[in-house]
Amino acid sequence: MAKLDELKESLNTLRTALSLLSAFLIAMGGALGALFKSGDIGVLFWVCAFFMALFILAGFIVITKIKQKTKEIENYDGYFGNVNNWNRHFCDVFIFNQD
After folding, report:
1. Which of 10, 28, 82, 87 is 20 to 30 A from residue 53's alpha carbon, by CA?
2. Which residue has the higher pLDDT, 38 or 92?
3. In this structure, are residues 14 and 65 in contact, taking their beta carbons and an 8 Å threshold?
4. How far apart are CA 78 and CA 29, in angstroms?
């Protein structure tokens, strides 16, 4: 069960990271739009554009990691991961005396 808890905790951390990245993307988009509207296309504009692209890339990486962790939780093969695994363990240990 500790492995399952660890997977769930890392999934929650990734979801939090995705929320923070979304907030940064909204802020960067607003700053980029304001700079463009004012006609101030200088160093700050390009720095905002660079970081916006960087945050988009990081968002795709986090989404990929979330998908991987979700698959790991779906395929979790602990004894109490689902009823079938528990039944298999019960039969192995108590009926067939195997461990």
Report:
1. 10
2. 38
3. yes
4. 44
